[in-house]
Fold:
Amino acid sequence: MKVFLTLAAVLLLPAASAPHASAPRPSWDWPLSPKPAVLRTFDPPDKPWMSGHRGVDLGAAYDGVPVTSPASGTVSFVGVVVDRPVITIDHGDGLRSSFEPVESTLATGAVVAKGQIIGTLQAGHCDALDCVHWGVRRGDDYINPLEFVTDLRPSILLPVAREDPAALDDG
Structure:
């Protein structure tokens, strides 16, 4: 019976620990180079109308630094929102990245490649620090941009398989 329960647990373990089917795999590039520090993390609101941080703020070496597209796509918006220049890239499958404050000479409809410069960082988002705000949406839902550049799945430690001492006894 003990062997049966152990076998059942081992067979069920991969299904229980498998990542959610819609969880993105880290396959995009960072929009800043070198890999930036995360100055403010993703902190979505409990309800869509509440306050929260719907993206991440990435530290930059200086204002004017080039910002690149983390994945290929099509420019879906270039303009000013409130008082900041914004560019949005549609990556397909309902995924869109937005960057602010980023000044761009690209036009809506322009096709961009992964790693292509899409604009330059302007001062003003993180007060005295130079940073870019990067938001990602799937449809109408904001999701954590770091999931596309970093594996955020939890580490799972599995027990070491050991021989049953009683089975080794030749008696």
